[in-house]
């Protein structure tokens, strides 16, 4: 993949533990997930990339085919906005065209958590504003880190019971 965001590795900067949500319901999202993972594993600003199990879930507030979802854990050297721009470049390279909100799409790469930081800009809100309401986010997130806390909302595991009416299945 040739999605490039101009970032240089800076040995004086530390890495931040980040979580990304992957989703897609058009084409072959599982193959696209593999490409996203390969991209981050090769990226000079990312290291220690791990993926949760993959889950299938129905679309939320939309129609269309079921989604495939997972969560990536990685260490990122750079700021949250740089990570967002990298995610958007990957999406674009893999065929994502932004149309209407919640429209079906081949790939979605969302910044869920960026360490314990909170970010609220016109382009990015971290923690992701609906992550604690989505079982397809909480289950894979908790699989990777059962003790993870959502800044301002507390332990992620405390939010899972409120989502158990949402059907997700591991695939």
UniProtKB/TrEMBL annotation:
**What does the UniProt record say this protein does?**
Catalyzes the transfer of pyrophosphate from adenosine triphosphate (ATP) to 6-hydroxymethyl-7,8-dihydropterin, an enzymatic step in folate biosynthesis pathway.
**Gene Ontology molecular function: any one:** 2-amino-4-hydroxy-6-hydroxymethyldihydropteridine diphosphokinase activity
Gene3D superfamilies found in the cross-reference section: 7,8-Dihydro-6-hydroxymethylpterin-pyrophosphokinase HPPK
> What species was this sequence derived from?
Limnobacter profundi
Q: Does the keyword Metal-binding apply?
A: no
Give the EC class as a word: transferase
The highest taxon in the source lineage is: Bacteria
Boundaries of every 7,8-dihydro-6-hydroxymethylpterin-pyrophosphokinase domain copy:
101-112
Entry similarity comment: Belongs to the HPPK family.
Q: Which PANTHER family does its entry note? A: 2-AMINO-4-HYDROXY-6-HYDROXYMETHYLDIHYDROPTERIDINE PYROPHOSPHOKINASE
SUPFAM superfamilies recorded = 6-hydroxymethyl-7,8-dihydropterin pyrophosphokinase, HPPK (SSF55083)
Its Enzyme Commission number?
2.7.6.3
Any idea what this protein is called?
2-amino-4-hydroxy-6-hydroxymethyldihydropteridine pyrophosphokinase
What Pfam families does the record point to?
HPPK (PF01288)
UniProt keywords (A-Z) are: ATP-binding, Folate biosynthesis, Kinase, Nucleotide-binding, Transferase
Pathway membership, UniProt: Cofactor biosynthesis; tetrahydrofolate biosynthesis; 2-amino-4-hydroxy-6-hydroxymethyl-7,8-dihydropteridine diphosphate from 7,8-dihydroneopterin triphosphate: step 4/4
Looking up PROSITE patterns in the UniProt record yields:
HPPK
């Amino acid at each position: 993949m040739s999605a490039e965001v101009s970032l240089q590795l800076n040995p004086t900067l530390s890495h931040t533990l980040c979580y990304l949500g992957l989703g897609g319901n058009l084409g072959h999202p599982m193959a696209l997930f593999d490409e996203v993972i390969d991209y981050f594993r090769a990226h000079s600003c990312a290291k220690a990339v791990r993926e949760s199990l993959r889950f299938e879930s129905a679309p939320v507030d939309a129609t269309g085919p079921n989604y495939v979802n997972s969560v990536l854990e990685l260490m990122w050297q750079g700021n949250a906005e740089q990570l967002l721009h990298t995610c958007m470049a990957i999406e674009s390279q893999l065929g994502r065209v932004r149309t209407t909100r919640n429209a079906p799409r081949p790939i979605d790469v969302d910044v869920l958590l960026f360490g314990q930081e909170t970010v609220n800009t016109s382009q990015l809100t971290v923690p992701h504003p609906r992550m604690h309401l989505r079982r397809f986010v909480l289950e894979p997130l908790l699989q990777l880190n059962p003790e993870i806390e959502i800044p301002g909302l507390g332990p992620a595991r405390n939010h899972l019971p409120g989502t158990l009416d949402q059907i997700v299945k591991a695939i």
